[in-house]
Specification:
6-stranded mixed beta sheet; 1233 residues; 60% helix; 10% strand; ABC-type xenobiotic transporter activity; Rossmann fold; single chain; alpha/beta
Amino acid sequence: MFIEDASIDQHYGYIYAATLLSATVISALFNVHFTWLMSVIGLKMRGAIVSTILRKTLSVTSTELNKAFSIGEITNFMSTDTDRIVNSCPSFHALWSIPLQLFITLFLLYNQVGISFLAGVAFSVILIPINKIIANKIGQLSTEMMKHKDNRVSLISDMLRGIRTVKVHVWEDYFINKVSEARVKELKYLRGRKYLDAVCVVLWATTPVLVAALTLGTHALRGQVLNAPIVFTTVALINMLIAPLNAFPWVLNGLTEAWVSIKRIQKLLDLRDMDIEHYYDRLNTNCDEDKVIIIKNASFAWAKSSIRRKSMPKSKKNKGKSQKKLTKYSIQRRDSVSSNEALIQEPFMLQDIFFEIGKEELVGIAGPVGSGKTSLLLAIIGDMLKQKGDIQIPECLNSFGYVPQQPWLVRGTIRDNILFGKPYDEVKFRSVIEACALTEDLNLLGWNAYVGEGGCTLSGGQRARVSLARAVYQDKQVYLLDDVLSGVDATVGQHIMQRCILGLLRHTARILVTHSPRHLARAHRVLLMQDGRIVSQGPPETVLNEIEDFLPSETESIGEEIEAQGDADDKQSPDLDVVSQNSLENDESMSEGTVGWWVIGLYLRSVGAFLTMCIVISLILMQLSQNFTFIWLTFWVRNKSNTSVNLQTIDNVHENTTALDHGFNVFDNIVHKIINTSIAMINSFSGNNNTSIRTDDILTNNMYPTQTPVLKASAFTDNYYLEVYFGLAGLNLVFTIMRAFLFAYGGVKAAAKIHKILLKVIVKANVKFFDVTPTGRIVNRFSSDTYTVDDSLPFILNILLAQIFSLIGAVAVTVYGLPWLLVGVLPMAFIYYRLQRRYRITSRQLKRLQSVALSPVYVHFNDTLEGLSNIRALGAAARWAERGEESVERWQRAALCGAAASQWLALRLQAAAAAAVAGAALVAVLQRATHAADPGLVGLAISYALSMTSMLSSVLNSFTETEREMIAVERVGEYITQVEGEKMDGESPPYGWPSHGVISFEDVFLKYGARENGESALRGVTFSSHPGERIAVVGRTGAGKSSLLRAVLRLTPCASGRVCVDGVDVATLHLQALRSRIGIIPQEPFIFSGNIRENVDPLRQYLDAEVWRALDACGARDVVTARGGLSAPADQMSRGHAQMLCLVRALLQKAKILLVDEATANLDQESERVILDTIRCSFGGSTVVFVAHRLTGVLECSRVLVLGGGRLLELRPPEDALADPTSHLYKLLHPDQ
């Protein structure tokens, strides 16, 4: 109105410009402050949610937790679900503010065009239920997608937990296919979400054009006047209307996803906490002051059952001899159940438990594998569900000194693992490490020696002793020791028994699970367990006589858990050198500087070159069609009001123009030529030649840049203007649809390809990578970073590209309408560049700091899930939760700095944009004063300038956010490009290889990556086996026993020398061909999620009948039958039963060479005999390398190989060595001599 009406005083223009500047600045201040507060609230919410999940996990029993959720689900609670809930904060406020914005905008729109606004509003209202339907569908797809994501992450966690077993059994392709199947299902729902998102993008991008066309078209058809003030005010109001309308589905979508995540987390929070008061009854200290635990007629189960498990039928023989003495047959049938019980298939139970323990009493527990020894200890600490009976403890007893059978250690130093949050007391610390036989180790390694994840940098014996020392340091009244002496040599075992269990802990109550009769004989009482019951208890001399067939003889037990004593030099060469954190397991690396072009290239290659080009072209066409739609609108308005413009005026204006004006006139001519050509094409397609633009319709000659072309007012009718207007709007719709769906397809394609490459790289990585990289860090790549690549990155990248092209279009139109504004645009562009450059440098590093700080949160939570029983039993749940919250706080500090930096940029960008708007208004006022202002072009330019305020800020924010999200691609790309894979290539072995099974070591030196400049784990080892020979390998902790097996399997390449099998150098063979022909029974049994059939034969190479024959051969048929057959789940198996399944795998493989790595360390004597008999009978013609654990294993072999400090000390028949007092084996068995 001001531009058109010459009667309005000029100074009002300056007032309007100042008012526009003030309003824009005030809006910027409020927007920045609101966003900052939302960031702070979001960080507080995240900290509260993560802390709540962590503390809830620590308060729930392992049974309840494992029954309800997988590890992948709980990990996603911490990452994806928490993200969605936090991101719902702005959506919550938008839910009430959007209706308010709509009401105000509609009121103003009505004042401009009257009831014509209803046409556009009707179209917008139709979109609301459509948006609601889309939002609901997106919520449903998100729920399903998260389920499959949980499954995928669980599979990956499972695989990483047993990655070494996966490699030696050549199961890489199996797990890749299994994870890929879960990924395909996840991508199915992700693809559906992205296509629905594409529909939302189409509505978001085309609604302004369509609503403006409907509103102004209705206004014109009603015969109303279309002038610049009405048209461009209406367009500006429609833009204000469209923003909240298009935001509404995203608001609903965000709230829906947040609600889904809240319900998922609520399921975790609804789990019943361990009720200490209900689970334990408090002892009456007056009556039972000498007792600390009393269990009366109690039954415990791993899961609640609706049908009570039937009791074992009692026979009269129970009162006779068989009750007093367990026969070999009874032990072999230890896990058999009645036919009725097999049909019920209920979980393992402890039944009718009755025993008590005094304050300073030592109680030994013995029994066959799977009899319930470990379960009894877990029942005492509350990890099982109490079905009936009482378990009584004193009021002051609220924790236990629990030492699990499999040591649980966390990343950190040895000292940190022992202290476990307790204050350091030097006298106490030294007495504990001396009692636990750690003094020499710590003198050698140092107290601050770094312990890798799960204790991977320590030997098995060292892990066991550190775990014991941690419990002893906690000063508990009751100690539950689950087979803690099986992982150490005889001398160390005697030391721990004498100095620790009978010494430092003599004033405490102790329950010791062991198979050693020597240790059981020193207990005050012994409990014998079988099939979940205590079948006998009493003094050691009585109970040990009853189980003489079950436990080894005294002669056998002398050699129990033999380890070479070695000399002083030997003690300095552990199998896995314990080194400082910096040399072995570094903190997560953090890149610096800009995101490299290689990262962008990786993502674009994943999308595909052709698809990328199609997306860019569709974006250009979409923006051009949108800009020309509004330029055509300007063209329409100007021609309808052109009566006041004549050639004389134009010539007069021309006389006062400058060289810059001539340039803009040239640009003006070019734009009009494009418009004319477009109209001609539309007419030719429609067959309408009567209304095409003719040369004489132009009042001035276009060939002369000094004259501005002006169409005759009567050149076209309103209907024709509307036809072209709607035609351009239709083209915009078509190009927007192309752009949205092509981008959705490209994003999913990139996500699928990147995950596929990452999975293959990780699975094929060498073992060194897993030795030095925590599992939680790798899982973070497959969880948080993959989610970013799947969802967050395509979302923000889509917005960035759309905003860049919108900004380019807005700048072009603004400069076209107000040419002199170009003078201010160039310095403004420089200011923007400087601001974003300064911010991006800081923002990138802050984002990387956030990513690096986030990994310890995952690692800590992963440690929590693995060590839940240990943490709660030791009474350290509160300390452990605080430690986790400290990790969260470190991440929050980085995130808070990132949010502050973001708003620092936002405030400056919006202030500069406000100045640009004021500049545009000022130029318009000045042009009006010189009569050079075209109302239509000025209105269009001001309209775009107003939108540029948010566009410039949005582009830079989106650019920065995209760069930050690209860091996820960078982190994944670092693994893809930097993780070294195993050398797979090689020759195919000869047909029938190996036919003899002869293993030859020729001057082999072997070093681990962590100590490439240090001593070798194997030093000049040379020996050769005979065909079909059984060789026992013995030696103390760190002697090089496991390194010997790793060299054969090429888990660690030899530094020099060579290993040959039947004369073929294993280094020259294809890796999978080598490992597939060698059987192995590992020390740590690996059972993954799935049924028993999958665990013993995941590749489906054997028939069910063959599997059953293998189960029969190792005496495991009854165990499998009792659990429900081959289709029964393989989880929650005892360690002994899990080892049986590992033996079954080896039996099915029928390899000519079998490597046995201390596979009987945690088995009772009878189970060990079963395995040894099975190996002797089923592998009679095979070469067996047996890392011996007890003397029985040594005597089963034809020769014994003694290692010390990585050197071969002795290789001779065991009978000769035992008869020679000077032999290393004899000294090993008789350390006192």
